[in-house]
Amino acid sequence: MSAARELIDATDTYIIPSYGQRVLAAERGEGARLWDADGKEYIDFFAGFGGAGIGGHCHPKIADAVQCQARTLWCHGNFFTSRPQVDLARRIVENGFGGKVFFGHSGADAVEAALKLVRRVAGDGRYKIISFHGCFHGRSMGALSLTPEKYQAGFEPMLPGNVKADYGDLDSVAALIDDETAGVFVEPIQGEGGVNVPDASFLKGLRTLCDERGLVLVCDEVWTGPARTGRWYAHQHFGIEPDVMTLAKALGGGAPISACVASPKYADVLSPGTHASTMGGNPLCAAGGVAAMDLIAEEGLVDRAAEKGAWLCRTLREAQIGCVREVRGHGMLIGIELDAGVEARPLFLEAMQRGLLIGYAQTNVLRLAPPLITPDDLLDRGVGMLVDLLRSA
Fold it and tell me: Is 128 one of the catalytic residues?
């Protein structure tokens, strides 16, 4: 039995199967490459499902920062503070819209904090939240209540008052607002929904609508920030500032950390005792986040994401592949929509067999999110492998 098969079988024995049977047993990673337990090498164009999206796997600067912090201070509880926590919060707000940060562990964790903040702001019986068809905000009960019904089956009832509008349709949003509506949660670019990019006027109109109706606007940037789309945060493409923003995945450079960022107007709404996370913002993960944010600034990864993402899209479009209906995205977050009869998951599995790791969404969209530091030669090789795969579909 191979080492990879042995590890997958042991996973089936000891770990709850909420992800189904694992399809790869990872052993080590370096930059945009990953090796399985049998020593097979892969080009990783999905960057640890977003977690390694900035520096890739085991970037030396991020690894050194985490190792140094591990020898200094791991955790301290949330009655105390530490330099890594403050340094990461500073970098988040200085590259965004100011305000303050609450740290958690995952995207769903950040959404839960944002939900509580929105309800506390609204008060007076206003509790309803508008989100969108095709969205994804997480699998904890509050976040799940904002997420489409197919993920909710078997876990009902959800939190009351959550309704879905049509993504990109302002009239659809306006029709759902009533005296009990508290806020709107939106992904500037939908990730799990298939890398759906709205018209520029949609988010601007949504910002205006929220201002007119006294609603809190939350941008879920768990997939899109920081730097992934060619801006520090994806809402900056659309010329708006949200009231609240959620971050996770790549924020820690691969370490599990998330952030709920509140604008100056709402920065002190979550007063003492209203929310907590024992290990949120712990020095170990925060140090990884500081190193990742510094890597973005020092190596110009915002501009690189914009430049290389445009090249990826252009290359895929110019290949004129018969089964590809559309290539879309911003920066290095790219969706490849396939013809209705072509399913994405079998191509995801075939790509893996060929040594390329990609993602998929819905039934017919492939997703690309390479590490922002991926060198040009690996981008060339990976795209060539992908084009060959799609032509054989």
Answer: no
Taking only the tens place, the pLDDT of each residue in 279-337 is 999 999 999 999 999 999 999 999 999 999 999 999 999 999 999 999 999 999 999 99
Cα distances (angstroms) measured from residue 94 to each of 4, 149, 226, 264: 44, 37, 12, 12
Both tokens assigned to 116: 């509580």
Q: Among residues 97, 220, 308, 348, which one is catalytic?
A: 220
Residue 47: CB atoms within 10 A of its CB come to 30
Helix (H) or strand (E) holding 119: helix 107-122
Looking at 243, 249, 308, 348, which residue is catalytic? 249
The 8-class DSSP code of residue 221 comes to -
Kindly report the CATH number that applies to the domain delimited by 73-298.
Answer: 3.40.640.10
Residues facing residue 307 across a β-bridge: none
Query: Which one of the listed residues 103, 136, 185, 238 is annotated catalytic?
Result: 136
Domain boundaries, the chain: 3-59+300-391, 73-298
Please state the CATH superfamily assignment of the domain spanning residues 3-59+300-391 in this structure: Aspartate Aminotransferase, domain 1 (3.90.1150.10)
pLDDT tens digits, 55-70 = 999 999 999 999 999 9
Q: What residues are paired with 337 via a beta bridge?
A: 326, 365
Active site annotation includes 238: no
| Tokens representing residue 35 in the block | 């090796």
Residue 199 annotated as catalytic: no
**76 contacts 82 by C-beta, under 8 angstroms:** yes
CA distances from 385 to 105, 129, 174, 344, 357 (A): 35, 43, 45, 16, 10
